[in-house]
Amino acid sequence: MEKIFLDILRPDDWHVHLREGEVLSNVLPFTYENFGSALIMPNLDIPITNISLADNYYNEICKQIPKAAKFTPNMTLYLTDCLSKDEIRKVSTHKHIKAIKMYPKGATTNSDSGISDFKNFYHLFEVMEESGVILSIHGEVTDEKVDVFERESVFIEKVLTKIIKQFPNLKIVLEHITSSDAVNFINEQSMVAATITIHHLMVNRNIMLSKGIRPDFYCAPILKTEYDRRALVQAAISGDRKFFLGTDSAPHVEGKKIASCGCAGIFSSPLAIPLLIQLFEEHSSLKKIEPFASKNGRAFYGLRQHKDRVRYVKRPKSIEVIKDIKTSDGKIKVFNPYNEIYWEKEN
What we know:
The structure is a single chain. This protein has 12 helices and 13 strands. It is about 35% helix and about 15% strand. The radius of gyration is 19 Å and the shape is globular. It has a single domain, classed as Metal-dependent hydrolases (TIM Barrel, Alpha-Beta Barrel). An 8-stranded parallel β-sheet has the order 2-3-4-5-6-7-8-9.
């Protein structure tokens, strides 16, 4: 059988959680081995709320990246009321900090320092708009009166549309979109882009709930319907410059996932690109992987395109893949909804 290859510009991950300490050491290799760069989220136990903390975290990450690795960590700041206008202006020219991340209070892991009243931050959005600093948004309301499956759509209607109206030139990334409503909204915007995760492209809420609760598929924002999943797939394979890959890979040890109050998060970094290739292949869209995974994000963030390419090869038989990684606190399960994977990176 003749080998089937896919050559693409080195992909980037525009939304990843690397954690810290031992977990960082265990998960970081899967990111620098598979991606040319990644946008690192700031929601650590002690949030990355200023440039000094971001620089320290950047240095901690860089110490663990081999010199031969072609990888750049891009950093973010956690938006809190401690952030000043002067700090935002400094971010606009900072070499490694590429965005400021806005979390609604209580929306996801380590979001207790997040925002309750968005209007209180309009004065900072104004400086971000003037300085060209990108606002990265976890787009959900956290009002318990709003159904958990509707929180993204309500956020777009009640919060995001008002921010855009007030600051029409503010560059925004609506992170890890999950719904057809979000896709339609992004299609109507000029200054707003969106990341899409591997897991939201591949699985829906039935898989998480219909045959018993499967906590390994629990994430925030939560999985939506099959109709929504298909809308996300169509957005990803469209090649549209406003959609790009952000895995939202978020490792949690088994004891924190399978618990009376389990953590939201899916660890997808190890198999992200092979899974993506196989999904695009199923939709006869292999030629559209490069815009989604390699080009669109860099263009939106104003970065030069990669020049080096990577090759993936399709094997005639299913390959053996990693199922979990071990830490002193327990296992971290690797996301893989396929029974069989055929694509792997050629070294």
